[in-house]
Amino acid sequence: MPIVVQKYGGSSLADAASIKRVARRITEAKKAGNDVCVAVSAMGDSTDELLDLANQVTPQPPPRELDMLLTAGERISMALVAMAIADLGYTVRSFTGSQAGVITDSSHGRARIIDVTPGRVTDALEKGHIVIVAGFQGVSQDTKEITTLGRGGTDTTAVALAAALNAEVCEIYTDVDGVFTADPRIVPAAKKIHRISNEEMLELAASGSKVLHLRSVEYARRFNIPIHVRSSFSAKEGTIVTDKPAEGDTVEAPIIAGVAHDRSEAKITVVGVPDHPGKAAEIFQTCADAEINIDMIVQNVSATETGLTDISFTCPKTDGQTGVQALRKVQASVGFASIQYDDQIGKLSLVGAGMRSHPGVSATFFRALANTGVNIEMISTSEIRISVVTRADVLDDAVRAVHTAFGLDSTEGEAVVYGGSGR
Amino acid sequence: MPIVVQKYGGSSLADAASIKRVARRITEAKKAGNDVCVAVSAMGDSTDELLDLANQVTPQPPPRELDMLLTAGERISMALVAMAIADLGYTVRSFTGSQAGVITDSSHGRARIIDVTPGRVTDALEKGHIVIVAGFQGVSQDTKEITTLGRGGTDTTAVALAAALNAEVCEIYTDVDGVFTADPRIVPAAKKIHRISNEEMLELAASGSKVLHLRSVEYARRFNIPIHVRSSFSAKEGTIVTDKPAEGDTVEAPIIAGVAHDRSEAKITVVGVPDHPGKAAEIFQTCADAEINIDMIVQNVSATETGLTDISFTCPKTDGQTGVQALRKVQASVGFASIQYDDQIGKLSLVGAGMRSHPGVSATFFRALANTGVNIEMISTSEIRISVVTRADVLDDAVRAVHTAFGLDSTEGEAVVYGGSGR
What we know:
Two copies of one chain form a homodimer. Chain A is α/β, with parallel strands linked by helices. Chain A has two domains: 3-175, 3-Layer(aba) Sandwich (Carbamate kinase); 248-423, VC0802-like (2-Layer Sandwich). Chain A is 34% helix and 24% strand. Chain A contains twelve helices and 20 strands. In chain A, strand 1 (3-8), helix 1 (16-31) and strand 2 form a beta-alpha-beta unit. In chain A, helix 2 (46-57) packs antiparallel against helix 3 and helix 11 (361-371) crosses helix 12 (395-405). The A-B interface holds A 15-16, 19-20, 50, 53-54, 56-62, 64-66, 68-69, 71-73, 75-76, 78-80, 82-84, 86-87, 92-94, 99, 144 and B 15-16, 19-20, 50, 53-54, 56-62, 64-66, 68-69, 71-73, 75-76, 78-80, 82-84, 86-87, 92-94, 99, 144.
């Protein structure tokens, strides 16, 4: 029997009524002739409520105990989903991450999956039971401690289970209809993407698209698991993330998959850095030691008369003050002049595998921004992505302008193939 | 290093502030030179809130999934208590029932402890950590399923851990100062009992005293673990439950330990039962098949002219309607006339090991009830207990009258040795 893995997030499990709706959805997949294994997140805001309780008790909870606390959230939702399924007359078994064989390293709060040994899940599926697994959690290989995978980890749990069970598809149910060419709250004309490659989805997820968790896409690519992102509130098809070409796919795929934006980063500029070999290394080693996640890096050309240069980089706002403090401590030894911190920035990214073979994409991109009067502060590119940093307050305008310039605005519902020239 | 096991109930863990208070209390025991292992219940009313969620999803949750759900409650409280202890600068490890080696049978919702294999707890204690264990829960021996021990099960967890760790004492922290000679809400003159035997404590717990869970007292008696019941809100000594004589105990112990009452039972009377051998057995087999917990049983003398008798018994009100329905189904085959159901009853029990050797106790007891105008509907006795069923609305008066008659009312704080005669 084909195996389908489904994932339901907290917003699909906000209360008893939503849980019953999700249960009906799960039993439909079973009724359609599949073995069904489901990964669930904690209900609604319950993870935040648990974090709030922890913060009331101590400003610095030990990571081991924080994981113990937070894993209660999925335990509650998985048991309730299982009850709702039983109420519909199906047999069901819920398993914690540990029971389902989700083996991780021992980095509490951001553990990585090392292996999945789903013996109990397989047994239960073979007996005809629907299986519910607590997302976001696992057990460490060496110490047998309960771990969590970090925010959004349930996507990764679902994909990892799909890989271990050799599932046909991993369906990620969420509160939107799929992956869009841009955030529909900013670009009302944004269209649902019907099919997208893993590579493009990775770039979108890394550039601020919140629909899928980055690590789950990496995992799906490695194990070649098709992901179907769709709404738990409708029966509509969503977005298929896969590298397999669609059947009967004769038209060339669109060049541009979509426009992502990100408001969660800050920019740190280290001013007046001596332009000697090794200075950049000292700066970024300092950031690495402070566990700052660096995103974009730009170094200006050195002014020859002074022998000094400026180095700018972006990092999550939540890491910003840590980064500034760590750098201040090495100011004398590195010998730079000052630090500027700026958290009023926005990042816009254009993603599309077609960029590789279609010149002219960057020209169209920068022209669209220029016509809207958007000033560009940093630029970074990959093979299939161009990202720019702008002022935060012009970000929405910039996203809309780029979306329109690449013909992504909805007309009859399918993305237009872009035919620009002269990159 | 001596090992102390402590237990904190939900009312001592109602919010972040109470959890911090409990943490301070725990670290004091550590500071005093003990290894400390603590069993905790779920916070405040959180078990009821989880039950309510389950009932919103289905009227009949599968017991396995209900246990999965409810065990989230202690997981949350144990992690928070551990965090609060870490915040005070101590190292700490929390363990689920399963991790702590609480092995049970597989009766979900009312599992019994088969064994405790506390390897991880012992390791952590030897490393100098304070250990927090989730109460009320375990893992089944055969199926490795998560189980719960039933309401009040955290008392049993604590005593079982104390036995397995060979602890000096099991301290049960609660929201009252100890075990009293009667419920102080009904008898303001009730006194705290300083020391009580296991046997007496068992009878009190079985007769409606809610301070200690019956099964935990049975467990403590079997493994000879002294229990210290005390308030988590004060530093006062509470009640020691032990069969060891107190040091320097020259005065004879009081005859009467206390007066318990119970409003949770109902009375079922089977009217007009043919007075043939085997009829009572049929009735009680019917109740056993319906899983009704029978408490007191009274059969009246048969009226010779009719050859019929009445059989009355008490059971928990929650089992009452099930019992009535089960009996109605066998009415024809057993051949009784009718069933009377009465849930307006109260039970009063007088408990004291001294009853055995002191005649006159029952005379004093019934005289006290008669003088208060209390009508007695059923009587049952054990070696060290007399229980009567009365109307519910006279129960409080009856408790006060008996308490006074046996000289239990507080004068200077110590129970008076009763010197009656002529039982």
